[in-house]
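Everyone, carefully examine this protein record:
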Amino acid sequence: MTKVGYLLPTREAIMAGEHATARLLTLAEQAERCGFDSVWVGDSLLARTRHEPLTLLAAVAARTERVELGTAVLLPALRNPVVLAQLVATVDRLAEGRLILGVGIGANTPAARAEFTAAGVDFDQRVGRMVHGLRLCRQLWSGQPVTWDGPYWTLTGQSLQPTPHRPGGPPIWVGGSAPAALARAGRLYDGWFPVGGEVEGFRTGLDAVRQAATEAGRDATTMTGAAYVTMAIHDRPAEAEAILERFLGEYYAPAPAAVMRKAQSCYAGPLEGATEYLAGFARAGVDHLCLRFCGDHAENLDRFAGIADRLG
Protein backbone atom coordinates (compact mmCIF):
# COMPACT_ATOMS: atom_id res chain seq x y z
CA MET A 1 0.00 0.00 0.00
CA THR A 2 1.22 3.52 -0.82
CA LYS A 3 2.40 5.42 2.23
CA VAL A 4 1.40 9.05 2.70
CA GLY A 5 3.54 11.66 4.45
CA TYR A 6 3.14 15.30 5.46
CA LEU A 7 5.54 18.22 4.90
CA LEU A 8 5.88 20.55 7.88
CA PRO A 9 5.43 24.24 6.90
CA THR A 10 8.87 25.44 7.97
CA ARG A 11 9.24 27.82 5.04
CA GLU A 12 5.73 29.20 5.48
CA ALA A 13 6.33 29.77 9.20
CA ILE A 14 9.41 31.89 8.54
CA MET A 15 7.61 33.81 5.78
CA ALA A 16 4.91 34.66 8.34
CA GLY A 17 7.53 35.80 10.87
CA GLU A 18 6.89 32.80 13.10
CA HIS A 19 10.29 31.55 14.25
CA ALA A 20 9.08 29.52 17.23
CA THR A 21 8.83 25.76 16.69
CA ALA A 22 6.01 24.80 19.07
CA ARG A 23 3.33 24.80 16.35
CA LEU A 24 5.50 22.74 14.02
CA LEU A 25 6.00 20.07 16.66
CA THR A 26 2.28 20.05 17.45
CA LEU A 27 1.52 19.55 13.75
CA ALA A 28 3.94 16.62 13.62
CA GLU A 29 2.14 15.02 16.54
CA GLN A 30 -1.21 15.64 14.86
CA ALA A 31 0.03 14.01 11.64
CA GLU A 32 0.90 10.87 13.58
CA ARG A 33 -2.52 10.82 15.27
CA CYS A 34 -4.23 11.28 11.89
CA GLY A 35 -2.57 8.17 10.52
CA PHE A 36 0.08 9.73 8.28
CA ASP A 37 3.04 7.46 7.65
CA SER A 38 5.77 10.09 7.68
CA VAL A 39 6.69 13.71 8.51
CA TRP A 40 9.04 15.70 6.25
CA VAL A 41 11.08 18.91 6.47
CA GLY A 42 12.56 20.96 3.61
CA ASP A 43 16.02 22.51 3.44
CA SER A 44 17.52 25.87 2.52
CA LEU A 45 20.02 28.18 4.18
CA LEU A 46 19.35 31.55 2.57
CA ALA A 47 17.51 31.08 -0.73
CA ARG A 48 14.22 30.09 0.96
CA THR A 49 15.02 30.44 4.64
CA ARG A 50 13.53 27.99 7.14
CA HIS A 51 14.46 25.88 10.16
CA GLU A 52 17.46 23.56 9.87
CA PRO A 53 15.90 20.20 8.90
CA LEU A 54 17.92 17.63 10.83
CA THR A 55 17.78 19.64 14.04
CA LEU A 56 14.01 19.97 13.74
CA LEU A 57 13.60 16.28 12.90
CA ALA A 58 15.52 15.43 16.07
CA ALA A 59 12.82 17.25 18.05
CA VAL A 60 10.07 15.55 16.03
CA ALA A 61 11.69 12.18 16.75
CA ALA A 62 11.38 12.86 20.47
CA ARG A 63 7.69 13.85 20.13
CA THR A 64 6.54 10.92 17.95
CA GLU A 65 6.73 7.15 18.07
CA ARG A 66 5.59 5.67 14.78
CA VAL A 67 5.96 8.03 11.79
CA GLU A 68 9.01 7.94 9.57
CA LEU A 69 10.97 11.19 9.42
CA GLY A 70 12.45 12.59 6.23
CA THR A 71 14.19 15.50 4.50
CA ALA A 72 12.42 16.81 1.38
CA VAL A 73 15.04 17.42 0.28
CA LEU A 74 18.38 18.00 1.97
CA LEU A 75 21.24 19.65 0.06
CA PRO A 76 24.28 17.54 1.07
CA ALA A 77 26.68 19.66 -1.00
CA LEU A 78 26.22 22.53 1.48
CA ARG A 79 27.55 20.40 4.35
CA ASN A 80 30.85 18.80 5.24
CA PRO A 81 30.13 15.05 4.93
CA VAL A 82 31.89 14.14 8.18
CA VAL A 83 29.69 16.58 10.08
CA LEU A 84 26.64 15.45 8.10
CA ALA A 85 27.34 11.78 8.82
CA GLN A 86 27.44 12.47 12.56
CA LEU A 87 24.23 14.55 12.44
CA VAL A 88 22.35 11.89 10.48
CA ALA A 89 23.58 9.07 12.70
CA THR A 90 22.47 10.93 15.81
CA VAL A 91 19.01 11.73 14.43
CA ASP A 92 18.57 8.14 13.26
CA ARG A 93 19.45 6.97 16.79
CA LEU A 94 16.89 9.38 18.26
CA ALA A 95 14.30 8.15 15.78
CA GLU A 96 15.32 4.50 16.31
CA GLY A 97 15.66 3.86 12.60
CA ARG A 98 12.78 5.98 11.29
CA LEU A 99 14.90 8.46 9.31
CA ILE A 100 14.79 8.76 5.49
CA LEU A 101 17.36 10.99 3.82
CA GLY A 102 15.81 12.71 0.81
CA VAL A 103 18.55 14.59 -1.06
CA GLY A 104 19.04 16.80 -4.09
CA ILE A 105 21.52 19.11 -5.80
CA GLY A 106 19.42 22.29 -5.65
CA ALA A 107 17.78 24.37 -8.36
CA ASN A 108 19.93 26.44 -10.69
CA THR A 109 18.61 29.88 -9.71
CA PRO A 110 20.38 33.12 -8.76
CA ALA A 111 19.22 32.72 -5.14
CA ALA A 112 20.55 29.16 -4.95
CA ARG A 113 23.89 30.18 -6.44
CA ALA A 114 24.18 32.99 -3.91
CA GLU A 115 23.35 30.53 -1.12
CA PHE A 116 26.19 28.21 -2.15
CA THR A 117 28.59 31.13 -2.41
CA ALA A 118 27.65 32.29 1.09
CA ALA A 119 28.33 28.77 2.40
CA GLY A 120 31.74 28.71 0.71
CA VAL A 121 30.79 25.96 -1.76
CA ASP A 122 31.29 26.09 -5.52
CA PHE A 123 27.81 25.74 -7.01
CA ASP A 124 29.18 24.04 -10.12
CA GLN A 125 30.63 21.27 -7.94
CA ARG A 126 27.31 20.44 -6.32
CA VAL A 127 26.74 17.12 -8.10
CA GLY A 128 30.22 15.81 -7.34
CA ARG A 129 30.07 17.03 -3.76
CA MET A 130 26.72 15.32 -3.23
CA VAL A 131 27.77 12.01 -4.77
CA HIS A 132 31.19 11.82 -3.11
CA GLY A 133 29.89 13.25 0.17
CA LEU A 134 27.13 10.66 0.48
CA ARG A 135 29.56 7.89 -0.42
CA LEU A 136 31.83 9.08 2.37
CA CYS A 137 28.87 9.25 4.77
CA ARG A 138 28.02 5.63 4.04
CA GLN A 139 31.59 4.56 4.73
CA LEU A 140 31.60 6.48 8.01
CA TRP A 141 28.26 4.94 9.03
CA SER A 142 29.96 1.54 9.06
CA GLY A 143 31.81 2.57 12.22
CA GLN A 144 35.03 1.24 10.71
CA PRO A 145 38.18 3.32 10.13
CA VAL A 146 37.92 5.26 6.87
CA THR A 147 40.76 6.37 4.66
CA TRP A 148 39.66 8.82 1.99
CA ASP A 149 41.93 10.64 -0.40
CA GLY A 150 39.40 11.70 -2.98
CA PRO A 151 37.88 14.90 -4.23
CA TYR A 152 37.20 17.63 -1.69
CA TRP A 153 38.10 15.83 1.60
CA THR A 154 40.82 13.74 3.23
CA LEU A 155 40.56 11.16 6.03
CA THR A 156 43.41 9.05 7.35
CA GLY A 157 41.90 6.04 9.09
CA GLN A 158 39.39 7.81 11.36
CA SER A 159 36.13 6.22 12.45
CA LEU A 160 32.80 7.82 13.36
CA GLN A 161 30.67 7.07 16.39
CA PRO A 162 27.77 6.73 16.96
CA THR A 163 26.68 4.68 13.98
CA PRO A 164 23.07 5.02 12.77
CA HIS A 165 20.36 2.84 14.26
CA ARG A 166 20.08 0.93 10.99
CA PRO A 167 23.26 -0.80 9.80
CA GLY A 168 24.66 1.17 6.88
CA GLY A 169 22.56 4.24 7.64
CA PRO A 170 19.12 5.46 6.57
CA PRO A 171 17.80 4.94 3.03
CA ILE A 172 18.79 7.70 0.62
CA TRP A 173 16.21 8.93 -1.91
CA VAL A 174 17.45 11.36 -4.54
CA GLY A 175 15.52 13.95 -6.53
CA GLY A 176 15.98 15.21 -10.07
CA SER A 177 14.29 14.33 -13.36
CA ALA A 178 17.03 14.93 -15.94
CA PRO A 179 18.37 11.75 -17.61
CA ALA A 180 21.62 11.96 -15.65
CA ALA A 181 19.68 12.29 -12.39
CA LEU A 182 17.51 9.26 -13.20
CA ALA A 183 20.59 7.17 -13.99
CA ARG A 184 22.31 8.35 -10.81
CA ALA A 185 19.30 7.42 -8.69
CA GLY A 186 19.20 3.91 -10.12
CA ARG A 187 22.94 3.29 -9.84
CA LEU A 188 23.61 4.68 -6.40
CA TYR A 189 20.60 5.26 -4.17
CA ASP A 190 17.62 3.60 -2.53
CA GLY A 191 14.79 5.67 -4.00
CA TRP A 192 13.77 8.37 -6.46
CA PHE A 193 12.04 11.46 -5.05
CA PRO A 194 11.29 14.09 -7.74
CA VAL A 195 9.75 17.42 -6.78
CA GLY A 196 7.57 17.72 -9.86
CA GLY A 197 5.82 15.99 -12.71
CA GLU A 198 2.42 14.44 -13.24
CA VAL A 199 1.44 10.79 -13.17
CA GLU A 200 2.62 9.70 -16.63
CA GLY A 201 5.90 11.54 -16.25
CA PHE A 202 6.46 9.88 -12.92
CA ARG A 203 5.75 6.44 -14.36
CA THR A 204 8.23 7.02 -17.19
CA GLY A 205 10.89 8.38 -14.83
CA LEU A 206 10.53 5.51 -12.38
CA ASP A 207 10.87 2.99 -15.21
CA ALA A 208 14.14 4.70 -16.23
CA VAL A 209 15.41 4.67 -12.65
CA ARG A 210 14.69 0.97 -12.26
CA GLN A 211 16.25 0.20 -15.63
CA ALA A 212 19.42 1.99 -14.51
CA ALA A 213 19.38 -0.04 -11.29
CA THR A 214 19.11 -3.28 -13.25
CA GLU A 215 21.96 -2.28 -15.57
CA ALA A 216 24.09 -1.55 -12.51
CA GLY A 217 23.44 -5.06 -11.21
CA ARG A 218 21.08 -3.95 -8.47
CA ASP A 219 17.66 -5.30 -7.51
CA ALA A 220 15.33 -2.75 -9.12
CA THR A 221 12.35 -3.98 -7.11
CA THR A 222 13.89 -2.55 -3.94
CA MET A 223 13.94 1.00 -5.36
CA THR A 224 11.36 3.27 -3.71
CA GLY A 225 9.39 5.64 -5.91
CA ALA A 226 8.27 8.75 -4.00
CA ALA A 227 6.35 11.83 -5.12
CA TYR A 228 6.09 15.36 -3.69
CA VAL A 229 2.61 16.82 -4.24
CA THR A 230 1.14 20.24 -3.36
CA MET A 231 -2.54 20.24 -2.34
CA ALA A 232 -5.03 23.15 -2.25
CA ILE A 233 -8.43 21.98 -1.01
CA HIS A 234 -11.73 23.83 -1.28
CA ASP A 235 -15.26 22.75 -2.19
CA ARG A 236 -15.33 25.43 -4.91
CA PRO A 237 -12.69 24.62 -7.59
CA ALA A 238 -12.15 28.28 -8.50
CA GLU A 239 -11.37 29.13 -4.88
CA ALA A 240 -9.00 26.17 -4.64
CA GLU A 241 -7.18 27.40 -7.75
CA ALA A 242 -6.86 30.87 -6.21
CA ILE A 243 -5.44 29.38 -3.00
CA LEU A 244 -2.85 27.38 -4.96
CA GLU A 245 -1.85 30.33 -7.15
CA ARG A 246 -1.45 32.61 -4.13
CA PHE A 247 0.60 30.00 -2.26
CA LEU A 248 2.98 29.30 -5.14
CA GLY A 249 3.38 32.99 -5.92
CA GLU A 250 4.36 33.84 -2.35
CA TYR A 251 6.49 30.75 -1.73
CA TYR A 252 8.59 31.02 -4.90
CA ALA A 253 8.65 34.78 -5.48
CA PRO A 254 9.89 36.30 -7.71
CA ALA A 255 9.21 33.27 -9.94
CA PRO A 256 5.67 33.44 -11.39
CA ALA A 257 3.13 31.05 -9.88
CA ALA A 258 2.18 29.73 -13.32
CA VAL A 259 5.77 28.72 -14.04
CA MET A 260 6.15 26.93 -10.72
CA ARG A 261 2.85 25.11 -11.15
CA LYS A 262 4.03 23.60 -14.42
CA ALA A 263 7.22 22.41 -12.71
CA GLN A 264 5.42 20.79 -9.75
CA SER A 265 2.84 18.12 -9.01
CA CYS A 266 -0.18 20.14 -7.86
CA TYR A 267 -3.86 19.55 -7.16
CA ALA A 268 -6.49 22.23 -6.56
CA GLY A 269 -10.11 21.30 -5.93
CA PRO A 270 -12.48 19.38 -3.63
CA LEU A 271 -11.30 16.66 -1.27
CA GLU A 272 -13.00 13.90 -3.26
CA GLY A 273 -11.02 14.81 -6.36
CA ALA A 274 -7.82 14.96 -4.33
CA THR A 275 -8.20 11.32 -3.32
CA GLU A 276 -8.59 10.23 -6.94
CA TYR A 277 -5.65 12.43 -8.00
CA LEU A 278 -3.38 10.79 -5.43
CA ALA A 279 -4.70 7.34 -6.29
CA GLY A 280 -3.40 7.95 -9.81
CA PHE A 281 0.13 8.22 -8.42
CA ALA A 282 -0.40 5.04 -6.41
CA ARG A 283 -1.48 3.20 -9.56
CA ALA A 284 1.61 4.55 -11.36
CA GLY A 285 3.86 2.84 -8.84
CA VAL A 286 4.43 5.53 -6.21
CA ASP A 287 5.39 3.85 -2.93
CA HIS A 288 5.41 7.02 -0.81
CA LEU A 289 3.65 10.37 -1.21
CA CYS A 290 4.77 13.57 0.52
CA LEU A 291 1.90 16.07 0.75
CA ARG A 292 2.48 19.81 1.03
CA PHE A 293 -0.68 21.67 2.05
CA CYS A 294 -1.76 25.18 1.12
CA GLY A 295 -3.89 26.90 3.75
CA ASP A 296 -4.62 25.79 7.30
CA HIS A 297 -2.44 22.78 8.12
CA ALA A 298 -4.31 21.47 11.14
CA GLU A 299 -7.53 21.50 9.14
CA ASN A 300 -5.90 19.75 6.19
CA LEU A 301 -4.41 17.06 8.41
CA ASP A 302 -7.88 16.28 9.72
CA ARG A 303 -9.30 16.27 6.18
CA PHE A 304 -6.71 13.77 5.01
CA ALA A 305 -6.77 11.54 8.10
CA GLY A 306 -6.56 7.92 6.97
CA ILE A 307 -5.87 8.92 3.35
CA ALA A 308 -3.52 5.97 2.79
CA ASP A 309 -6.37 3.53 3.42
CA ARG A 310 -8.55 5.32 0.87
CA LEU A 311 -5.86 5.04 -1.82
CA GLY A 312 -5.98 1.24 -1.64
